[in-house]
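Archive entry: two folds, one per protein. Generate the first.
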Amino acid sequence: MKSKLKNILLAVQQDIGKRGLAKLEDNLISRTKGDFEAACASLAKGTGTVIFTGFYIPTATPPAPETDGPPGALLIARTLASLGRKVAITCEKNCMSAFEAGLQIGDISHFIAIEKCGPSHLLQSIPGQNISAFLNATDDSSRGKILTMSGKDITPFTAPVHHCFDPNFCIANNITRIGIGDGGNEIGMGNIPWHVIAANINNGSKIACATTVDHLIVAGVSNWGGYALGSGLLLNVGLPALSSLDPATEWKILEIMVQQGGLVDGRLGERIASVDGIDWSIHTNVIGSIVKSLEETA
């Protein structure tokens, strides 16, 4: 199983979009070694899960949530449901709806944030040796705000679901937190020191998210991280044949989410069946690699 999980992780950590996930030796991928395996093992022992997703693109035509996140969230949800687990997906509106969704499924063991933006760092979260660099690279108008990769403030358009990931609250309620992201500004990226994201990610000093999780999965595309987590879960319970992951199915889901749900490509800013401006053949290859790992008998 370890080799299969390793191959899956290698497939989804390709930095096709050239975000800078592993630009330097000390990077987002090296800082999360072992997290993917731990997340899969933890979820395999879980009961009820709440999945948070939805990244609003105010500059899109028209402004709307992006296509990265919801498909990956849906694959995780389908996988959990196939195992008879209780699961809820929650997105925007307000933070209360997140708690209401969680209360409905009862006995929550996991919160998962996939491509869910969280607030950037405040001065108090920066170690002393990095304070000068932080002050020089940021300003009061951006600190503690929820920012896009380009640094645009989307705090008014984003429900503060990062509060649900408060460590004290989650520890008190025995909730394990899993984050999935691809750009440095998502919930969970607080696990990685500010200076590492600042050095690797373009605009990272400004947009780096401060919210932490128990296990952080860094992927080239957040949907890929969702596909990986759902697949790793099945490997951990010994039921890989239950996987519903398939390139054709994911393409149909993407088309429906765009046509009927109004999602937009977050990088291109257009209402088209595309994710992060990456040709679908690339997504197909990544999904194919994951499926191949699931189907291997050795």
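Generate the second and append.
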Amino acid sequence: MSLKNLPKPQKSGLLLIDKPADFSSHDIIAIVRRVLRTKTIGHSGTLDPMATGLLILLVGREATKRQSEFLQLSKTYQATLKLGEETDTWDRYGNFMGAAPVPPISPEQLHTAVQQLSGTISQQIPPFSAKKIKGEKMYDLARKGVELEKRFSEVTVTWSDVKQTTPDTINFTLTGSSGTYVRSLGYMLAQKLGTVGHLSQLRRLSIGSYRVEQAFDGNLLKGCDTELLYQQVQTL
């Protein structure tokens, strides 16, 4: 579909999508552009292809003008950390990089490790991320085999429902400020526990006051009726 000469959207506002796995956020945006027959669509923060959950699309000029406002909202996730195996992307879609023994972990040790990664902290930015270095995205540089120095950013995070469900699996809920990489927090938690790890599951539950329970099922987007999807757009 050519994006040239597409009409303005019938309605401006927010479209909440529950993104399925195996789709990039830009895949979802492209599908919604085709269904709504408009080019003017932004987002309030992307999700990795592995991740599922809330994706807020901004439809029309009035909504996209407020993109920076929505990008700054805090986000809450549910995640599963697989201990003992490291990947280059720090999630299960990455290439296997190596293994390490998983030591016995007491509830007290887990609590201490989580506390060390709570509040305002310096998180390591994943090498496979959209962060730019001299105008080039880090994941493009990583795919070219460019060796990157470790880079860090400051974020504020709160953990809850942290549970070790098996000797090598930890489930947790995390709320982070804008720019938080949950993959990074999982990677860093594994290091605090004396091993390596990667995220095997990630689901975004909320962005600000907007929750995934309010969202349209992304599996239904292909072939969706234009008028039906416009009914899901919330005016601002």
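Annotation attached to the second fold: The first strand starts at residue 13 and ends at 19. The chain has a mean pLDDT of 90.
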